């Protein structure tokens, strides 16, 4: 788990229940996408993050396309386990017009994340960075990984604080259903 204190991420335990509904969430057990719970669409906060070249992107840049926003870090064991499986699913989702944004919250940004992705063989996800963790703060999230499903209108329709089994049977179909 992690805490956000004074704008920085620090390792530690948090004293409140994570912000997701699955029974497995409390113990960090990964869930399949078909177990993600949709909720009525709600507005997303303004979010920004940088790409490998330092160009700033905003979530608003992707309105019109369904988006999977995935927050992770190299120092987060569940993130490290989960990210390669999301990377393997991403090309199929992208063929259907779904944008997969994997945003690292590592403070060192590209200097640390790019070599890490190369080392674990993740080549299908363009790296994005938010070394200030402003995205996690804006989403009121304190734990990683976090996945937010965003519809074509730029509204949140589902969220998972904790790992997802991206390679579970029916994952792609469940995500298409959730994203509309």
UniProtKB/TrEMBL annotation:
It is found in: Cell envelope. Residues 38-180 form the Thioredoxin domain. Its main location: other. Keywords: Cytochrome c-type biogenesis, Disulfide bond, Redox-active center. GO terms for biological process: cytochrome complex assembly. CDD domains: TlpA_like_family (cd02966). One of its GO terms (cellular component) is cell envelope. GO terms for molecular function: disulfide oxidoreductase activity. InterPro entries: Redoxin (IPR013740), Thioredoxin-like_sf (IPR036249), Thioredoxin_CS (IPR017937), Thioredoxin_domain (IPR013766), Thioredoxin_ResA/DsbE_sf (IPR050553). It comes from the Bacteria. This is Thioredoxin domain-containing protein. It comes from Acetobacter nitrogenifigens DSM 23921 = NBRC 105050.
